[in-house]
Write a structure and sequence with these properties.
Order of helices and strands of chain B: HHHHHHHHHHHHH
CATH topology of the largest domain in chain A: MetI-like fold
Radius of gyration of chain B: 24 Å
Helix content of chain A: over 70%
CATH class of the largest domain in chain A: Mainly Alpha
Number of helices of chain B: 13
Shape of chain B: globular
Number of domains of chain B: 1
Number of strands of chain A: 0
Shape of chain A: globular
Order of helices and strands of chain A: HHHHHHHHHHHHH
Number of helices of chain A: 13
CATH topology of chain B: MetI-like fold
Distance between the termini of chain A: 33 Å
Strand content of chain A: under 5%
CATH superfamily of chain B: MetI-like
Largest sheet of chain B: none
Largest interface: A-B, 110 and 109 residues
CATH class of chain B: Mainly Alpha
Radius of gyration of chain A: 24 Å
Oligomer: heterodimer
Chain lengths: ~290, ~300
């Protein structure tokens, strides 16, 4: 039977020549939409500024060079600091989220007491409110805490809005760990905390890694509104805000802006591409469950 | 499930840090927003309660236009995300060489900092030198340069397209996962019965993807409704307020003009809409779980 089945699947998946052309054309169009801004940005970064403002439009840069990449460091003395800030903020956010989320995801996955469903619902509801709606009281809160214009002004609110999705993802993962493990540990006289730390955490670590990656991407890619509103010190700005200042000027130095954008995102993109295999698997696992 | 007294205490102890954190950083500001919406809070030292004045003040013509615009903007954006996401997922699911690479290539808009992707779109929309205007001119579709962000209608659609661009990768990957979880036997049976590719898509793939599409469109609806960065960076709500959505309007009132009270009233209106979406979302997902019986 199994043999036939494979043959059938292969037959189903066999395309005629025009179907293959159609599929590739569709994929090409789809990817062009998603990648066009990067292609365009890269071309812009290679052009000298004088040549940027020429019509008619041409794709290929004449006498293109990487001069703009060097120019970034002169014009934006804080450039590397911005890149570092972005990483620092995202890393701290990820660590704090994990510290808060790992225990609560376990609680949601393993225990079922009156009121827990309600608490879970409230957590999910939190993710529906964006930070932009709550800016005014958050601003006052940050001021009262005395953290305005520090890294914490960007980290503290960032964490709160990433908790819900992290709980959701990790809870699904942890719910799949067999209950027998808890029972066996109980029989051997392990305390609840010991079971959590020594039995559950090691088994859940692949799931925790996925949640860490997703949280890091969230923290890294959505740095904008808190950093825009709660921090005005150049030395603490994350990359997007640092470049936004560059972008808002009357005369935008486009080629350097693009060069800065590419250099700035490169480290994160490389890291994430190495991790993407875990990522797709993890998202899929969490997604299907919903 | 484990139920006894000591484990109950343990469970709540595990939950406590996250609950306390979210209460201070989200729940309290939410309550505070409601309180502020009844005051004339601003940069002045003294704050007075003004009753419903902030609310009566905002319900004028421009605000109703802004609400309507927010809804149409969100609707078109979510619709396009779902359509393009479905097409993308079906294409990436096709068993052709190179599909693993193609799947990776869909991810950049999602993992790159949003603001940076938006800067690049800012250049694309540039009339004189941007790619879109340039290509349109090359192909003779328009006569002269088109500055997309300078006119109300084109700026409206330009911001939608950028929002779609940011949302599509996540939607596509999620839908791809949903398609791949459909049992192969169904396709096999349909194929044996002579169902063509389109028939199999319409009668198997689409119905079985429906729960994923509904879930994702609700999540996407909420995210899009909250969208701030794209419009703020590309147009700041302009030209002459024609891309101002409720979030942008709230930000301009509260942070731009420092009218905290009026801004808070606007934020409350947004929160009411979001709560309605939220309730709808929970209702729908619960119903899907009972019908679909999916894990």
């Amino acid at each position: 039977m199994a043999l036939f089945r494979n043959e059938n699947i292969q037959m189903i998946d066999r395309y005629r020549w025009w179907e293959i052309i159609g599929i590739y054309a569709g994929i090409a169009l789809f990817l062009f939409f998603l990648l066009a801004p990067f292609i365009e940005g890269f071309i812009v970064s290679l052009r000298p500024l004088s040549q940027l403002f020429t019509s008619p439009y041409s794709f290929i840069p004449e006498n293109g060079s990487f001069a703009a990449y060097a120019g970034v460091f002169e014009r934006l003395p804080y450039f590397l600091r911005f890149v570092f800030n972005s990483f620092l903020i995202s890393t701290v956010v990820t660590i704090v989220v994990l510290l808060l989320v790992v225990p609560s995801a376990y609680a949601f996955a393993r225990f079922n007491f009156r009121g827990m469903g309600l608490v879970l619902g409230c957590f999910l509801a939190v993710s529906m409110f964006s930070g932009a709606v709550l800016l005014i009281p958050l601003f006052r809160l940050m001021r009262t805490m005395g953290v305005l214009n520090t890294y914490w002004a960007m980290i503290i609110p960032g964490v709160a809005f990433l908790i819900p999705s992290a709980i959701w993802l990790l809870r699904t993962y942890m719910a799949r760990i067999p209950l027998e493990l808890n029972e066996a540990a109980y029989m051997d006289g392990a305390s609840q905390f010991y079971t959590f730390r020594r039995v559950i955490l090691p088994i859940a670590s692949p799931g925790i890694i996925v949640v860490a990656i997703v949280t890091f991407i969230g923290a890294y890619s959505q740095q904008f509104v808190f950093a825009l509103t709660f921090n005005s010190k150049t030395e603490y700005m994350p990359l997007p805000i640092g470049l936004f200042a560059f972008f808002g000027k009357q005369e935008v130095i486009w080629n350097e802006l693009m060069a800065a954008a590419f250099m700035g995102i490169m480290p994160a993109v490389v890291i994430i591409f190495f991790l993407q295999r875990h990522l797709v698997g993890g998202l899929t696992a969490g997604a299907i469950k919903q | 499930m484990i139920r006894n007294r000591s484990s109950m205490i343990f469970a709540w102890a595990l939950l406590a840090p996250a609950i306390i954190y979210v209460t201070i950083i989200v729940a309290w500001p939410l309550v505070e927003t409601f309180r502020l919406s009844f005051t004339d809070a601003s940069l002045k030292k003294v704050t007075n309660y003004v009753g419903w004045r902030n609310y009566t003040k905002i319900f004028n013509d421009t605000f109703l236009t802004v609400i309507l615009r927010t809804f149409t903007w969100t609707f078109f954006s979510v619709l396009l995300k779902m359509v393009i996401g479905t097409c993308g997922a079906v294409l990436l699911n096709a068993a052709v060489p190179g599909r693993h690479l193609f799947r990776i290539l869909t991810m950049p808009p999602w993992i790159v900092p949003m603001a940076i992707g938006i800067f690049m779109w800012g250049w694309m929309y540039n009339g004189q030198f941007g790619m879109i205007s340039g290509l349109l001119q090359r192909f003779g579709l328009v006569d002269g340069p088109v500055a997309f962000l300078a006119y109300g209608t084109s700026a409206y659609w330009a911001t939608i397209i950028t929002d779609v661009w940011i949302g599509v990768p996540m939607v596509t990957i999620y839908f791809l996962a949903a398609i791949q979880s459909i049992p192969k036997d169904l396709y096999e049976a349909a194929w044996t019965d002579g169902a063509g590719r389109w028939m199999r898509f319409r009668r198997i793939t689409l119905p079985l993807m429906a729960p994923a599409i509904i879930t994702m469109s609700m999540l996407s609806l909420i995210a899009t409704f909250n969208s701030f960065d794209i419009i703020w960076i590309l147009t700041r709500g302009g030209p002459s307020g024609q891309t101002t959505t409720m979030i942008i309007d709230t930000y301009q009132t509260a942070i731009g003009s420092k009218k905290y009270g009026e801004g808070a009233a606007r934020a409350v209106v947004i929160c009411i809409f979001l709560s309605l979406f939220c309730i709808a979302y929970f209702r729908i997902t619960r119903r899907l779980q009972t019908i679909g019986g999916k894990e």
